[in-house]
Every structure is written in C-alpha cells, then in structure tokens.
Specification:
By secondary structure, the chain is α/β, with parallel strands linked by helices. Helices cover 43% and strands 13% of the residues. The radius of gyration is 20 Å and the shape is globular.
Amino acid sequence: MAKSKIDETLKKIATNTSKASTPTTSSTSLGDPNCPHCGGAGYLRTDVPVGHPNFGRLEICVCRQRDVSQQVRERLYSLSRLDELKELTFDTFQPRGQTGLGEKQATSLEMAFNQAQHYASSLNGWLLLQGGYGCGKTHLAAAIANFAVGMGVPTLFLTVPDLLDMLRFSYDSEDTTFEQRFNEIRNASLLVLDDFGTQNATPWAQEKLFQIINYRYINKLPLVVTTNLGLDEIDARIRSRLTDPQLVSIVRINAPDYRHPM
C-alpha cells in the first residue's frame, strides 16, 4: 500500500525533476544504442520554439532514467546528514514518550508519531512539525526521510543552516555551479528541512529559502519542515505557504526535551 502511494506521488513529480535536471558528464553518457528516441545519445533536446524558456535544454532520455535516478538517490544521500541519523527510525521512536509524561503530552507525541507515519506512507502534500527543543521533531523528520530512502525515493535531509552554507559554498565550488546545486535542492523528490528558524536570517538567506519553498509549493513537491518557531515568527511570505490548509498538515508537539529525563 505504502509503495503504491509513493509511486503515485513520484509519477506526479517526475516531470519536474526531469526537466530541471541539467545533464552533467555522468548523466550525458551514452544511452541504449538501440533506443528509438535518442539513438544512444542518452538525452534529448527539448522540442520547443526559439524564445521558449526550455529552448536548448537537454532532457534525460527514458532509456537512461533508471541509471540517472540511482545516481540522484546516491548523490542526495551523500549530501544529507542521514548517514549520521540512520538510527532515527519509526522503530526507535517512543510514541508515548518517556515515563512520567502527562497524558496530554504523551497523547500529543503519539499523534505526531502517527501523522508522521501516515505522511511517510504517501508523501502527499507537506508536513510541518512544530515544538520545543528536544521534543522529537528531528527524530520524526529523519524517520520519514529514512523510510523514504528505503522505498527508493531520492531524498534530501538538511538543517536549514547547512542548506544555506551549501548554497554559499557552491559559488566557489569547482565540482558544481550554484544553479546546479540550487536546482538539486529544490527538485529533490522529498526535501526535509530541519531546524527552520535557526538560520542567520539575512535578506539573501530569506530570499533563497522563499525561492525553494515557493518552487515546491507551486509544483506540489513533498516537503517536511521542523521548527521551534511559532507561526507568527515566520517570514510572512513563507508562512503563507506553510499554512495553506489545502497542502500542509501542521503538527504541534507538546512534549518536554527527552534529553533531560524527568
């Protein structure tokens, strides 16, 4: 059931990902020599008139999409912090929290756990996890990401400060351009932004975050966000996207810091 729901979601976003992919040396290697579409080139030039935004853009041919999808999955995983967080799964989460939690706190945590599991099984829409430090937001977000990776979904998990640093460093990178890195982030099949609100809120940072979030909003690409901010503390433009009831499920976790036993 979970696999079929995720497959449906991935089909919806496949077109966006394919069109946004700028072929690199590895992704433009030869395709199937018997392919009736590309004749073995591995990619196709978009058939649009001069002046069209996609004129001159290359798209990966269907004969290479499986190989490229694997490359994308591996690259996004290497960019994520998930290797450090591989123990943060649904199995290792305590749905009722620690011994000593009040009933309302335990119920809040259990509801968040159930909603995170439900989201992971479909990747439908967005999920916003709100709560204080150490209440379990990052564990649940990482559990969603780890579950998605296990289902073969190209997933990028980053704290917001790390994401912004990654973009800044790409200006001076010899391996990738800023545009390539920016597109890689905003087009990830599943993007998980942890610790939203802990970033240095410069105008540049706010603008890049808005561009990423707005792009995913327009294209309805799956997004998970964790924050300890109240909604009224979030930039108005971003808040308007994060509070759209047609797209976003907001989960507020009322639980204490698990790192400080009661």
